[in-house]
Design a protein that fits this description.
CATH superfamily of the largest domain: Exo-inulinase, domain 1
Mean pLDDT: 81
CATH class of the largest domain: Mainly Beta
Strand content: 35-45%
CATH architecture of the largest domain: Sandwich
Distance between the termini: 53 Å
Oligomer: single chain
Helix content: 10-25%
CATH topology of the largest domain: Jelly Rolls
Length: 270
Amino acid sequence: MFRGNTNEYLFKMLFNINHIFFSKLKHHNMKSLLLFNAIYILLSCGNNNTNATDNSVDTSLKANVDTSLKVKTESSAMNLDTTLNFEESAEGSLPKDWVAAVGKWAIVTEENNKVLKQSAANSGSTFNICVNDKLVYQDLQLQVKLKAASGKEDQGGGLVWRYIDKNNYYIVRSNPLEKNVVLYKVENGKRKDLPLVGKGRTYGMDAPMETTKWHTLKVIIQQNMFTVLFDGKELFKVKDDTFKVGGLVGVWTKADAQTYFDDLTVHTIK
């Protein structure tokens, strides 16, 4: 089978046939020769158009394949329901796929149970953050068990979602010193508490809590609406459009708040 350029092949064939016609055939066959040449011209034009169409199809197919691969890759990093209890993690190190952006984070044993602890004694507006750098979520239910171990300046901790970097994310935290739960956005490194739906900017809501006692903090994230629950009770809702796309999830403390975290649960909302 001829594997070169189709036009080149037709041209060679035409040349040979023309040569035969002129050298061996009589004048009355000239009409046949002209007809054949006309057919060649049409075939050439048609072939060019066909190649253009084929190229277009190939390009479109490649684009579709590239898109499919991209979607597949993104899907593998998103929409994964999981519960992390850290029991399989090595003590003294970070859990697999977790990154400490700020602070001192490691697996420790607490009450015969492996948990993630923040133990740095920082100060001021230092936000200690540890995130899972493999899982990306947009709409989800995010829950964690936490226990404040110590902290003179600050205590407790919270949940991070739609994390872009250490300067841009959402955070909801509980603080036994203040006995309240507050939802903030951190944008360009600046933290700001967000107003509650129907209540305005109240700096979160008070809730009963104690140091050295386990509590459960949960947030339900649906597009721009965030519903916060503490120990199973709904406290408030916040609506905000600052960070709309998916991001990483993780845990957080402030300043010298040394806190234990366990049973981080993620459930996607579709």
